[in-house]
Design a protein that fits this description.
single chain, 100 residues, mainly beta, Jelly Rolls, four-stranded antiparallel sheet, 8 strands, 5% helix, globular
Length: 100
């Protein structure tokens, strides 16, 4: 039997670079996603369309970006992509929590 916590919460680290946006694929059905910038010196950029610069938002050092829904069902389905990440410069690591 699967551990209930492993299906309610999944934490993943994503190594990034400053060249291209990396798609963040949802590993489990969830309704809440938190992107933490735990790097001490490099900001992270998040966007919804890597071909449109007007969708870019910067996550400052030691800050987080949250996406949540009030829906009763999990709108962020496992295997789906809702945003992309890259380093503003250098190669930070983003810590992303996917919460049911």
């Amino acid at each position: 039997m699967a551990d209930p916590l492993s299906t309610a919460l999944r934490i993943k680290r994503f190594p990034l670079d400053a060249v291209q946006f990396q798609p963040i694929v949802v590993p489990v059905d969830c309704s809440y996603i938190i992107v933490e910038n735990t790097d001490g010196s490099i900001a992270i950029q998040v966007c919804t369309d890597p071909t449109d610069a007007s969708t870019i938002k910067t996550i400052p050092v030691s800050s987080e970006f949250r996406v949540q829904t009030n829906a009763q069902t999990a709108p962020f389905a496992a295997g789906s992509t809702h945003f992309y990440l890259r380093g503003a410069s250098g190669a930070p690591v983003a810590c992303v929590s996917f919460i049911r």
